[in-house]
Design brief:
Chain A: Belongs to the binding-protein-dependent transport system permease family. Chain A: Keywords: Cell membrane, Membrane, Transmembrane, Transmembrane helix, Transport. Chain A: One of its GO terms (molecular function) is dipeptide transmembrane transporter activity. The complex is a heterodimer of chains A (about 425) and B (about 625). With about 425 residues, chain A is mainly alpha-helical. Chain A folds into two domains: about 1-40 and about 195-415, MetI-like (MetI-like fold); about 65-175, no CATH class. Chain A is about 60% helix and about 5% strand. A two-stranded antiparallel ribbon of chain A has the order 1-6. Chain A is elongated, with a radius of gyration of 33 Å. Chain A starts with a helix and ends in a 6-residue tail after the last helix. With about 625 residues, chain B is of the alpha+beta class. Chain B folds into three domains: about 110-240, Dipeptide-binding Protein, Domain 1 (Dipeptide-binding Protein, domain 1, Alpha-Beta Complex), CATH 3.90.76.10; about 255-340 and about 590-630, Periplasmic binding protein-like II (D-Maltodextrin-Binding Protein, domain 2), CATH 3.40.190; about 340-585, Dipeptide-binding Protein, domain 3. Chain B has a seven-stranded mixed sheet with strand order 10-11-12-1-13-24-14. The longest helix of chain B is centred in the N-terminal third of the chain and has 33 residues, at about 1-35. Classes of the chains: A mainly alpha (about 425), B alpha+beta (about 625).
Chain lengths: ~425, ~625
């Protein structure tokens, strides 16, 4: 046994797969500890917040500020509001409004903005300009408000009694706060999704659910497949025919169709994660049965089995002691593949709206389903679906890699 | 050696895959910018692939000249069944849609066009304003002398009268809806129509509002054509309603050019009577109206972004990203949130057939706990005024309707949501507590466990229902969500009695000449209880005697002060009993336009007073005469 394990861990493929899988498991276990909280809590108002660090504007105003004089600060501020293409558009509008070309200096941003503030009139509808273009200029104009204003900004609060605005603080353009001093900082490494949930937190919890579904479904499928395969292969005769008849029936019906039908008939109210796992498990045992049976048939007439039979060992004892060890490696590999298939099956099911309940758990498939319904893929909100795809890919990649690695160790014909 | 080759190959393959993924991401972006100025016509299956796209050579089903065609999206799903306006199931969104908030009139026309912006009626086939008699029991309408059918004959009062009689006789949607309120429509002379309202015991009109609604809602169909259909159907109402009406005579500016399961194309009738100075004075700008039939909303959205759809009627999440981030030439009626005129109120209804939901504390608690801001921000992505901006009542957010009730009188009843503690307290006080410690409260030994449902694929509704379910979780009420197919959902909800869904989402009436009365009736009137195949309202089977009295009294009341009193009392009852609760305000039609080819669409404050209803509904059709090609 020890030797086998050492052998297994010498296979580079297995090791790579194992490491990826172990990392994912670690992540699933550790991340909820360092970032506790309900993964289904809608933290943001407004969907698909970009990944990044969010810190409270309210708190940062109340945090002690330091003065830092950066030479580039104003230019950066300008460039953030006003790109080169925006400047070209401004020049176009000004020209269309009849400002002589020699008065416009695109290089000198400050004078351009001043000219703009002077000439721009949002109510004018230049000939041939579409609503979209006019709206663009209105937005641009709005974003340029106060851009040249070097006066400090005044923050004020409304006095409850007099309803007047009382000044609280003046903020100048050289004021900075240390992010560490701001009490409320929320890091959203993967932004939020359509419900305003933290995607990373949800992803970790979804990975856990999906792994669990995979594990349950894989165990069920392997158990059924193994039992039927062993019985059919070892006993033969009528029982073999009968089991193979059922197996063939299931082989002919595409298992995914079966999966859809069963999931649909269960109804969403009863479709928890474990139910989905069980449904997947009982629809995907067929190939395990077939291959276990064929392996057992070749083992059935080996000498040691016949010896056991002659010695009067019971059926269960022969199967467990004399046959199972020979196919154990195969069963383990099949089990790994079953897990991977089950995770994919759950994802596919949830994608077509037949997965577990959204309000209860998050699964990888459900995350994809909602990202798709809210057309995250069309709106460039990659963080809502790409990490999910990556996790699904990594899970099945690592499991398959482990499987191939094991295959190389156990199958002499594949050895280097 | 062999192995190395294999390894190399696999490496190469991986590289190719990664690269292709990267380029896929990239090309998406370049597509967006390139479509900005190149408006490519939709490529469709053409019967004549060699046909030149010149004006003369356009064959039905052939490629349409892009700069003469206005492309629609989000209205038509599946192939049309026919062109018979007497039928209710032609599945013909562009040509046949009759609704109280303004019917679509590109092919068939109504007497008046309703305008939700100022609640006015603009004459279409009619000439001048309609006249009530002194008792408000009869309306007289004149017919425009210029109005002509497509076969050149004049539109007469006889056509109007005969259409109404036929609608009633064949019991189609219009006939069934209006017969209880309109006694008769008769022709006084060829150009004068007299509409008599049904009278109640006191000699007053049963419902004058619905008589007015008729003017902007019901198509006028040619008598001669109806008689032709009647003759070929042997006067069998069912057969008349099944007739596909391919030979139909129409009065509108467009008619059938080509349709299959890929697209529907209407072509302009250049002899349209409306070019007469007494109507529009010109023809509508696009020669063709085309609606490509897309598989689903995302497919439409892709086409819309690419400039293959000009006017799109669909919910697009975070629509502002289309112009702010992607710089596409796309606009909505309002430049800022909520981007449209929200007149509809998708509502979650409680199924009163469930004994647990007959408990008002439970109904109110769930409604109080729901996070409406999250629905607004996340489900509607901000495309709706919040319930803080527009406190809940039975009125939509337009100023006209908001003025119809006394806000201060119901202030204490209007909840704004997210009030988990308040909801918990309400339940605790009512003795509805969790006795067995499983986190779910019980009433009379029964667990508070409900099913909330809405149709599958209605994204914003589904997200809203999820948020309702989350609210239940917060206050110890188990709510599971279900998304059946739309037809299954609707046939369940409209049945006489159902036990499948405890909380379900349905729409309410939008703006219209009968509003907000019509919406109040829809939300609360017990007249619909026990009616099978009930599409009219009160799907939760709520019943309140006083409410029924108010609903009966309002239409006949001409004194605005008294009306306001009624409405205020109705809102009070509605907010106290909570038979349903609105989840959001939503436009009647989503209206987003891509200005790659056409421009000068209606926009807020342009002085044209054209409502943003995809240039089709009611007075919105005036937009077709205003739009222009982009220069």
């Amino acid at each position: 046994m020890k030797n086998t394990i050492r052998q297994v861990f010498h296979s580079p493929k297995f090791v790579v797969g194992f490491v990826i899988f172990a990392l994912m498991l670690l992540m699933v276990i550790i991340y909820p500890i360092i970032s506790p909280g309900d993964p289904l809590q809608m933290i943001s108002k407004g969907s698909f917040l970009k990944p990044g660090v969010y810190f409270s504007v309210y708190d940062s105003i109340n945090t002690n500020s330091k003065t830092i004089d950066l030479p580039e600060a104003n230019q950066k501020r300008l460039a953030n509001k006003l790109s080169d293409t925006d400047k070209v558009s401004m020049v176009q509008w000004l020209t269309a409004a009849g400002v002589p070309a020699e008065d416009i200096d695109m290089e000198d941003t400050t004078s351009l903005i001043k000219l703009w503030n002077e000439k721009y009139d949002p109510t004018v509808k230049p000939e041939g300009m579409t609503m979209a273009q006019r709206n663009f200029y209105k937005r641009l104009d709005k974003s340029l408000d106060n851009i040249l204003n070097e006066q400090p900004l005044v923050v004020s609060a409304q006095n409850q009694e007099t309803q007047t605005l009382d000044e609280i603080k003046r903020i100048s353009d050289t004021d900075y706060v240390n992010l560490k001093d701001v009490p409320n900082v929320k890091v959203l490494p993967l932004g939020t999704d359509n419900f305003g949930d933290d995607v990373l937190k949800k992803l970790v919890s979804a990975t856990k659910t999906s792994l669990l579904i995979g594990l349950i479904a894989g165990s069920i499928a392997t158990l059924i497949g193994l039992t039927l395969g062993l019985l059919a292969g070892y006993l033969g005769g009528f029982i073999d025919d009968f089991i193979m008849f059922i197996t063939n029936l299931f082989t002919v019906i595409p298992s995914f169709v079966l999966l859809i039908l069963i999931s649909y008939s269960i109804g969403q109210d009863k479709r928890g994660a474990s139910t989905v796992a069980i449904v997947i498990g009982i629809t995907s045992w067929v190939w395990t049965t077939r291959s276990v049976r064929s392996q057992v048939i070749s083992l059935r007439n080996r000498d040691h089995v016949n010896l056991s039979k002659l010695s009067g060992h019971s059926l269960t004892s022969i199967i467990i002691k004399d046959i199972l060890p020979y196919i154990a490696s195969y069963v383990v590999m099949a089990f790994i593949l079953q897990i991977s298939t089950a995770i994919l099956a759950e994802a596919s099911l949830s994608m077509i709206g037949l997965g577990p309940k959204t309000a209860d758990v998050s699964t990888l498939g459900l995350m994809m389903d909602w990202a798709m319904s809210y057309s995250a893929h069309l709106n460039g909100a990659w963080w809502a679906y790409f990490p999910v795809i990556l996790v699904i890919a990594l899970i099945s990649f690592s499991l398959n890699l482990m499987n191939t690695g094991l295959d190389q160790v156990f199958n002499p014909t594949l050895r280097d | 050696m062999k192995k190395n080759v294999k390894r190399f190959l696999s490496l190469l393959l991986t590289l190719v895959m990664v690269l292709s993924m990267l380029t896929a991401c990239k090309s998406n972006k370049t597509d967006d910018t390139s479509t900005k100025d190149t408006a490519t016509p939709t490529v469709e299956a053409t019967d004549t692939p060699t046909a030149e796209p010149t004006e003369e050579a356009v064959s039905p089903g052939g490629e349409l000249p892009r700069n003469e065609t206005l492309y629609y999206g989000g209205l038509q799903w599946g192939a049309v069944n026919g062109w018979n306006p007497l039928s209710d199931d032609m599945n013909n969104a562009l040509a046949i849609t009759q609704a109280g908030g303004g019917s679509r009139t590109p092919m068939f026309e109504t007497l008046y066009m309703y305008n939700m912006l100022d609640d006015s009626m603009t004459p279409l086939l009619a000439d001048g304003d309609y006249q009530w008699n002194a008792d408000r029991t009869e309306i007289t309408v004149k017919i425009k002398s210029a109005a002509k059918w497509s076969d050149g004959t004049a539109v007469t009062a006889d056509d109007v009268a005969y259409t109404f009689d036929t609608d009633v006789k064949v019991k189609n949607g219009q006939g069934v809806a209006l017969a209880p309120y309109i006694e008769s429509v008769t022709a006084v002379d060829p150009s004068t129509v007299l509409i008599k309202a049904k009278l109640d015991d006191n000699g007053k009109a049963v419902n004058p509002l619905l008589v007015v609604a008729y003017l902007g809602q019901t198509y006028v169909i040619q008598k001669a054509w109806i008689q032709k259909v009647e003759a070929r159907c042997n006067n069998d109402p069912a057969a008349i309603k099944k007739d596909a009406g391919e030979d139909v005579v129409y009065s509108g500016p467009y008619h059938n050019f080509y349709n299959d399961d890929q697209k529907v194309v209407l072509i302009r009738d250049d002899n349209y009577w409306g070019q007469d100075a007494s109507m529009w004075g010109k023809l509508p700008a696009p020669k063709y109206l085309c609606h490509t039939i897309y598989a689903d909303n995302p497919a439409t959205e892709v086409a819309f972004k690419a400039g293959e759809v000009d006017v799109d009627q669909q919910f697009i999440p975070n629509i502002q990203d289309l112009w702010e981030k992607e710089g596409l030439p796309i606009s909505t009626y309002l430049q800022d949130a909520p981007y449209g005129i929200c007149v509809n109120m998708p509502t979650a209804w409680y199924n009163m057939d469930n004994p647990l939901l007959q408990n008002v504390s439970i109904r109110k608690a769930i409604a109080m706990a729901v996070d409406y801001d999250a629905i607004n921000a996340n489900a509607m992505t901000g495309q709706s005024p919040t319930f803080k901006d527009v406190p809940r009542s039975v009125m939509n957010p337009t100023d006209g309707e908001q003025a119809k009730y006394d806000k201060d009188a119901v202030k204490d009843l209007q909840w704004t949501g997210s009030d988990v503690e308040g909801a918990k307290k309400l339940l605790d006080d009512a003795g509805i507590v969790d006795k067995d410690g499983d986190g779910i409260r019980e009433l009379d030994g029964k667990k508070l466990s409900f099913v909330a449902a809405c149709p599958d694929g209605w994204t914003d509704w589904q997200a809203a229902i999820e948020i309702v379910a989350a609210a239940g979780k917060n206050i110890g009420i188990d709510i599971t969500t279900q998304y059946p197919q739309a037809d299954v959902f609707q046939s369940t909800v409209t049945s006489k009695k159902q036990t499948e869904y405890d909380i379900f989402m349905m729409w309410t009436d939008s703006a219209g000449p009968t509003q907000p009365w019509g919406r109040l009736r829809m939300l609360t009137s017990s007249e619909y209880n026990g009616v099978d195949n009930n599409w009219a309202g009160n799907w939760g089977h709520y019943s309140n005697k006083r409410m029924d009295e108010i609903i009966k009294a309002i239409p006949g009341e001409s004194d605005p002060a008294k009306q306001k009193e009624y409405y205020t009392e109705a809102v009070k009852i509605y907010l106290t009993d909570v038979p349903s609760f609105s989840l959001m305000y939503r436009p009647d039609q989503f209206h987003a336009v891509n200005e790659s080819v056409w421009t000068n669409y209606p926009e807020n404050g342009d002085g044209n007073n054209i409502p943003p209803l995809v240039l089709l509904n009611g007075y919105s059709i005036a937009g077709l005469y205003k739009i222009d090609l982009v220069k």
